[in-house]
Amino acid sequence: MDKEQSIISNFANNLNGDDGAIIGDMVYSKDMFVEGIHFKSHWLSPKQIGKKAMIVNLSDAIAMNATPKYALLGLGLPKNLSNKYIKELSSGLKECAAQYGTQIIGGDTILSNKLIISLTIISYLNSKKPLIRNGAKIGDIVCYTGVLGGSIKGLRTLLNGGKISSNSRFVTPNLRQEFIKQSAKWIRSGMDISDGLASDLPKITQDRAVKFNKKLSKFEFISGEEYEMLIVVPPKNIKRVLNQAKKCRVKLNLLGKIINERAKFHGKFTHF
Predict the structure, then answer these.
(1) Which segments are annotated as binding site for Mg(2+)?
(2) Residue positions in the annotated binding site for substrate?
(3) 103-111/66-77 β-pairing
(4) Domain boundaries in the chain?
(5) What is the pLDDT at residue 16?
(6) What is catalysed by this protein (predicted)?
(7) Lowest mean pLDDT among 121-125, 152-156, 267-271
């Protein structure tokens, strides 16, 4: 058990265990975005930092088949940040929130030795069928959306002193909101790919093995912060989900079938 999971286990109860807590028809989720852990300040503009901090938080709600409505914002701000920087950072946060119909309704600020962005997202379930991590069964089909590997390629370029496009997956992830909203009724379980497929796959299969029918590169397998969807679909529903993906113009990859064996995964995603 890694340190993060050890901490989480200390607060385990029947309301947590997913990316958000479901209470009635509401979902509450929280993530932090910290300089030196998730990004370096010279890699991204203040506006890009604000946008990414918001979008990685909204991803948790959307992955659970919920519509994010409100956000509470906590900021730790270094003393040397200019008013212009803070204004651009705020603009990125607000612009991304507005794109997904979310309003920042309050929060708090403190002085800090590095930039810290903490967001609490309050969302409404789209239906009585939330998507949670548990529920996968032997014989179910594991799928993921989009193309994986772009985030780690962008990260490695930055770590080597290079520059990346503003459209890079590391800067601007794509969230599959409409696809999940329309497909959730046919999906057994789901989550976003934030820690990399190698790390997230055992979570959604409940440590069962997957018989792959698709060969993946190392980058595709370990790349974190992709925020594509990882879903488990009963075989009888796979055609419906594929058709919905086509309607939403989302590439859906059939990774493999869950089998009655213990998973053996090696490797995990860690922030630099």
Answers:
(1) 19, 29, 31, 60, 108, 192, 195
(2) 38, 225, 269
(3) parallel
(4) 3-125, 141-262
(5) 54
(6) thiamine phosphate + ATP = thiamine diphosphate + ADP
(7) 267-271
Residue 51 in tokens: 């946008």
Residue 167: pLDDT band with limits 50, 70, 90: confident
d(CA 65, CA 146): 18
Distance CA 13, CA 9 (A): 9
Domain 141-262 is found in CATH 1.50.10.20: no
* Tens of pLDDT, residues 256-269: 999 988 766 555 44
* Positions at the binding site for ATP: 107-108, 133, 194
Binding residue numbers? 19, 29, 31, 38, 60, 107-108, 133, 192, 194-195, 225, 269
Rounded-to-integer distance, Cα 161 and Cα 143, Å: 34
**Structural contact between residues 118 and 74, judged by C-beta atoms closer than 8 angstroms:** yes
C-alpha distances in angstroms, 205 versus 33, 119, 132, 141, 161? Answer: 27, 28, 12, 10, 37
Convert the pLDDT of each residue in 39-70 to its tens digit: 888 999 999 999 999 999 999 999 999 999 99
